[in-house]
Amino acid sequence: MGTAAQVPGEYSVSDPERALKYAIEHVAGDRTELVEGVITPVSVPWADERASGLVRRQLSPRLQELNLVAGSGNLDLPGSENWYIPDLAVVPAELAKTEGALLPDQTLLVVEVTSPSNGETDRTVKRRRYGQYGAPVYLLVDRQQRECTLFTEPGRLGYESVDGPHPFGTPVRLPVPFEVEIDTTGM
């Protein structure tokens, strides 16, 4: 039994997931995601920034009380071809010192704001994956549908509890440890 001859110019990678995520993290640039194996540059419209900023400002006093940090750092989903940059994630301050990516189950809250180019991904793929990877709370701010939905109780198939959708203008109450109502009027 012979071995296959290697074609000149080709090479093999022993761990394709690791190689792909390395390229995303170190070569592709600061704002590049990997969604189900597809390299996706992230371009955040000002309207998305505004919506995530409204959530951040309303959370800010509670974040200080709880020693938490809000930002849009990298989240790795090991064992999958996914590497996300959420619009906003809340993590313990100690974990925010980490140089590399965090895991969804290390977050306390993940917020995604839809735009026309990524809405379906945020509504379906990321909702399922964040739940499967243990992000305890996922807030979907859907600008196209003009509504917010809160997902909790992560499980093997995604989230088991759904609160919403709530039309913009309806307050959305975040669970423990936040216990804050988010005013969605200006979303």
What does this structure look like?
- The protein is of the alpha+beta class.
- The protein has a single domain, classed as Alpha-Beta Complex (tt1808, chain A).
- The chain is 25% helix and 30% strand.
- It is built from 3 helices and 12 strands.
- The chain has helices at residues 16-26, 46-66, 119-132; strands spanning 32-35, 38-41, 68-71, 75-77, 82-84, 88-92, 109-113, 137-142, 147-155, 158-167, 172-173, 181-182.
- The strands form 4 sheets. A 6-stranded mixed beta sheet has the order 3-6-7-8-9-10. It has a two-stranded antiparallel ribbon with strand order 1-2. A two-stranded antiparallel ribbon has the order 4-5.
- A hairpin with a 2-residue loop joins strand 9 and strand 10 (158-167).
- The chain is globular, with a radius of gyration of 18 Å.
Task: Name a few traits of the molecule.
single chain, tt1808, chain A, six-stranded mixed β-sheet, two-stranded antiparallel ribbon, 3 helices, 12 strands
Brief write-up:
The chain has helices spanning 16-26, 46-66, 119-132, and strands spanning 32-35, 38-41, 68-71, 75-77, 82-84, 88-92, 109-113, 137-142, 147-155, 158-167, 172-173, 181-182. With 187 residues, the chain is α+β, with helices and mostly antiparallel strands. Strands 3-6-7-8-9-10 form a 6-stranded mixed beta sheet.
